[in-house]
Write a structure and sequence with these properties.
This protein has 26 helices and 18 strands. Helix 22 packs parallel to helix 23. The longest helix is centred in the last third of the chain and has 29 residues.
């Protein structure tokens, strides 16, 4: 059951903040209910759906005009602000209904021309549907229950059974002018309805207030859920739960699959350095139940619950059976090749209808159903991969309920193609350059420390997906909160037995594999060598050498499974070449790590794995805290600022400078066995 989360007190807070202007107060309530809708995974996923309201405003000439505020492109209902509902002159849109035809490109252009603020985002492609209907508030969603109903072969009769004359059906038509016009005509013939079911697409509810429209949306959805429950005994819902057993199996499969798809993608683009995809695994209760079905081969080629999904998931998943997995790398590679051949055939057969004018998208899969593992989203970033896997999990709910109530029959392959290769989507090809590190998964040990977090922020800004490893859970949580987005991490003692394997497996479960290891964690113990307890030196070696060795060699084995190269970056330290009095416990294992870097570069170069490092000095982190800096400065008879800037440049070196050195090495595609010094200039620590 979907909860109605309207709260009068919360609604009042929104209207009070909007002031006395009636239009702003209506828009505030539109924002409020949009957030209620967008934050409920049973109603919409990943920016899906759209909402609107109609108000009266004065234009720049002081004339009162009707304005439609409708969700703008790129905004997520769950976090939408008033700016995400751009205002459009309603009269300009309403006149378009008299046209016999309107291209998608002209529609977008006319909608932009009607914006009150030219800097606003593009209004939704379904803006005209909102405009042609007379209601002041309109909500459009893709609830799992509604999609199950919309994909039934006799959906229209079931809508009549559940709702009587309260909802009317609209046949499937691509979003845009034609759909808006047909839906408006159907409404005009049934002016007392309070909602529309778009066959194979989704649900519209409307009303004269934000509350009325929202209440109807929830009521309609729950009535359908109740009907599904009665007929099938199951209720569609968001994916919950987790199977550790299935996740553990993923560690042996996802890196192999990631490497295979990465190789095929590189061949398709002609770019040998093409990034491998990022993966997102789902194996919640609903996925576990679905993967146990005996009709998966048929359902895997049935299509998606709503054409809106196809842009993220493609038309079909890659289906890896237990038999294929048992055949190892060769069998999985053949399955990927077969998928690409099938997808290319689908493209060519449908492209004929367009005179060959469409451009083939990357033919590798965006989704995989893997027996014994779960459903895996596959895309260029963690955000996109998460969207694909979430939509796939919802699609499984829809399939399960529809199959139990008459059969799952989504739109035809031809209509799916029309959506996937929509002219508005094709026009975007080649226009945007992806971030430099998009698709790269970066693990950083000591990730919550000053240098680790700065490095994470640097790589994240370049588009990479980050996996942090740190000893302290609280510090890790704080670092991930600062990063935001879809970055992940694990709290652990990296010197513990098996820690490296545990961290790598967790990274695989989060992102499918690894591209770059930044082996950064370290700490300094002080004391004269003649007085230093063996226990202290051994403890320092465990952290400052052996943990680096364990993580690097474990990463190297993972890179070998992916077979697409990789990178290892060490935080070495100037102590490796320029010992400091009382710092032997730190410098000696760091010197060993310096040699480890060179040794691994020698051994891994032929496998395409690059190994580099950074030698930094006097960075505010770890031992070099405010107290230590103050004491050292006092001992030398200088100010703290002078002490920290004690280098040839006479400027303090900060954590973000080290981070930039790591990112520079990561992007130096033909550099290995190199150590980059970041110390402001220290001749004693200079490398030969």
């Amino acid at each position: 059951m979907v909860l109605n989360r309207w709260d009068d007190a919360e609604a009042h807070e929104f209207t009070a903040a909007a002031g006395d202007d009636p239009a702003n107060r209506d828009l505030a309530l539109r924002v409020y209910t949009s957030r209620l809708i967008g934050s409920d995974l049973n109603l919409v996923l990943h920016g899906g759906g759209n909402t609107s309201c109609k108000v009266r405003r004065r234009d720049i000439l002081g004339q009162e005009i009707d304005v439609l505020h409708v969700k703008g492109s790129g905004w997520d209902l769950g976090v939408i602000e008033p700016a995400g509902l751009p205002g459009v002159r309603l009269e300009s849109l309403s006149m378009l209904r008299d046209l016999d035809a309107l291209t998608d490109e002209d529609m977008v252009n006319l909608q932009r021309a009607a914006l009150l603020d030219s800097t606003s985002p593009n209004p939704s492609v379904e803006t005209l549907l909102h405009a042609f209907l007379p209601h002041r508030f309109i909500d459009h969603t893709h609830a799992s229950a509604m999609l199950a109903l919309a994909d039934l072969p006799d959906a229209q009769s079931i809508v009549k059974e559940i709702f009587g004359d309260r909802i009317v059906c609209v046949p499937f038509i691509m979003p845009g002018f034609e759909l808006a016009k047909v839906a408006a005509e159907i409404y005009d013939a049934n002016p007392d309805v309070e909602g529309l079911l778009l066959i194979n697409h989704g649900h519209f509810a409307f009303g004269d207030s934000a509350k009325e429209s929202y209440d109807r949306l929830i009521e309609h959805t729950n009535l359908v859920e109740a009907w599904l429950q009665q007929k099938s005994g199951t209720v569609p819902g968001a994916a919950t739960g987790h199977s550790q057993e299935m996740s553990d199996r993923a560690a042996a499969i996802l890196p192999m699959l990631r490497g295979i798809i990465g190789e095929r993608a590189a061949a398709f683009t002609g770019n040998v350095d093409q990034a491998m995809p990022v993966m997102s695994l789902r194996n919640g209760d609903n996925v576990q139940g679905f993967m146990a079905r005996d009709d998966l081969p048929v359902l895997s080629r049935r299509g998606v619950a709503t054409p809106d999904h196809v842009i993220r998931t493609k038309n079909y998943p890659l289906y890896l059976t237990a038999k294929i997995l048992a055949g190892g790398q060769q069998a999985v590679a053949q399955a990927v090749d077969d998928y690409m051949a099938e997808y290319t055939t689908y493209f060519e057969a449908n492209n004929i209808r367009f005179g060959g004018a469409k451009t083939l998208l990357m033919p590798t899969p965006n989704l995989a159903w893997i027996e014994g593992v779960g459903v895996v989203g596959i895309s260029a970033s963690a955000k996109a991969a998460n969207a694909a896997s979430d939509l796939a999990a919802q699609n499984m709910n829809v399939m399960t309920n529809a199959q139990a109530c008459g059969g799952f029959f989504p739109v035809s392959e031809e209509k799916l193609f029309d959506m996937e290769y929509w002219s508005l989507e094709q026009a975007k090809l080649g226009k945007g350059k992806p971030p430099a590190m998009q698709g790269r998964v970066v693990m950083i040990t000591g990730g919550a420390g000053a240098i680790g977090l700065a490095t994470a922020q640097e790589f994240a800004a370049l588009g990479a997906d980050i996996f942090l490893v740190d000893l302290d859970q609280g510090a890790l949580d704080g670092a991930l909160a600062k990063l935001g987005g879809f970055h992940r991490g694990i709290a652990m003692d990296i010197t513990a037995q098996g820690a490296a394997a545990t961290a790598m497996n967790a990274c695989i479960q989060a992102f499918g594999g690894l591209d770059i290891l930044v082996s950064n964690a370290g700490a300094a113990w002080t004391g004269e060598m003649t007085d230093l307890p063996d226990e202290t030196l051994r403890k320092s070696f465990e952290l400052n050498f052996f943990s680096h060795q364990a993580f690097a060699t474990t990463a190297a084995r993972l890179f070998e499974t992916q077979a697409r190269g990789g990178q290892i970056l060490f935080n070495v330290s100037k102590q490796a070449v320029n010992p400091g009095k009382g710092f032997g416990a730190y410098g000696i294992p760091k010197a060993a790590t310096f040699f480890l870097l060179r040794q691994l570069a020698l051994e891994l170069g032929a496998k395409g794995v690059r190994v580099n490092g950074v030698n930094a000095d006097r960075i505010r982190s770890g031992l070099l805290d405010d107290g230590f800096i103050s004491a050292r400065a006092e001992a030398r008879g200088v100010s703290e600022a002078t002490y920290m800037a004690g280098n040839l440049l006479a400027r303090e070196v900060e954590a973000h400078h080290v981070a930039k050195a790591f990112s520079a090495l990561a992007q130096s595609e033909r550099t290995t066995a190199h150590v980059l010094t970041v110390d402001g200039g220290n001749i004693e620590a200079a490398l030969r």
